[in-house]
Structure prediction request, 546 residues.
Amino acid sequence: MSLFKYSAPSTFYPLAGKLVPWFGTLAFVLAVIGLYLGLFVAPEDFQQGEVYRIIFIHVPTAWMAMLIYLVMAGYAVMALVYQTKLSAMMMEALAPTGAMFTALALWTGALWGRPTWGTYWAWDARMTSTLILLFLYVGYIALVNAIEDKKRADKAGALLVLVGSINVPIIYFSVKWWNTLHQGASISFSQGNKMAVIMLSAMLVMALACWMYSIAVSLCRVRAIILERERHTLWVRDIKEAQS
Amino acid sequence: MSAEPSADAELAAPERGVWIAFCRDLKLAMRSKGELGQALAFFVIVVSLFPLAIGPETALLKRVAPGVVWVCALLAVMLTLPRVFQSDHLDGTLEQLALSPYPLPLLCAGKMIAHWVTTGLPLAAVAPVLGLQFGLDGRELMVVVAGLLLGTPILTMLGAIGAALVLGVRGGSILMALLVLPLYIPVLIFGAGAAEASMAGIDVSANLSLLGAMLLFGLVTTPFAAAAAVKISLD
Amino acid sequence: MNWAEFFSMDGKGFYVWGSFGAFLLCISVEIVLVRLRIGAAQRGVREAAALERDSLVADKRVDQAGM
Prediction:
């Protein structure tokens, strides 16, 4: 299959370079539309007034936090089973963006919680699981940075992500259990029963924007990683950035 | 070599790998009894710090007892985890183990069992005494011990994977803690939850069965993950 | 469109703009950091290439001198 020719860093590097502007522009356009829909078109919420608009950031970032970890897990499988360097590099490129979205989800969740339920942090199941997800991201980044041998770092990181992703459903289930036992603030989305279509669309558009953004940034970051790692190979000498 | 075929066959039976690794690690651990005592001492001391920090009010202490005992047990197990692979790694034995005819997952399983016998089991044995200090009664203490007996093996198994991943890495122990503690959270929730349920008078079987399920799942998966981690670290 | 009302968001402007602002800030910072990283990587490649060229030239000189 012709796609496999892109599994080598030397061919993927220029491809990624061409793709970054497309995804970046797409992300920007979608974000503008999403923010417009969320801030200007969507009506005021019946119960929460204007402050509910935070969900247009909070929910997409939370979705991305989970999605990116899942994608990392996919790359982890490829890195361990097919031993492809590029899979491990993509995993490494995604992690900081995933961690950023997780932190943003926590931050916006806290800022939403305070005016709505009176407290910045309520230890509900979703937010607590998101916090644990942040720990998983930070652990991965720490591990990969601590191991100097890149081949070992790739495989160790991949194994960690796999073990982590198997544990994520267990962790989420246990935290939900814990939360119902302790009758914490029941943070159920008041719009849960019937969210206005316009609100849902704005959320989806923002989620798509974040997704396109993640692809653009991680493709850019993986180019940097490729250059860092392949510095001494022949093909790198020939690219135009190497000509001084 | 003139060994009889049956003796050879017995030697090479892969399941013996578990027993061999278990016996070896247990013997080695027994030689440095001081180390074993330290984990226990740590557990007792840190548990005792809590009343000193939050005051001797009995109702409050009873309320926090399950959580405190569990968190301290978790930390004590984690402190002893490097022992599973590190000394073997330092003197080259680990490479020999990886190359031996016995499947590495089974050798890892044996090591995990030995670690639990020398760490988790003593902790579970000592926990009732500490629980009494916090005012727990007989039935509640039994639930704490049952939870620890089911949960500490899981802590050992998950921790061994983390320990194997950071072999030879600078700052490995604290990094291992970072990696392993999030994975410990479900065990903590169900273990402490069982004790709290018994304090509230509700059914503990749900929490304990979930722990049991996680234990079974861990028994069949973690040896392979640990072996994979060891192989990755040895390359 | 009452801009004053829009910015105050029912008096909860701090929370709303704190969220949207953090979002934009994090994304901008990440973009800047990635561009810095790729610039440094490209510099590293140029330096490695220059070093190799220099060592090749030095080798040639040594060969010629040795001859």
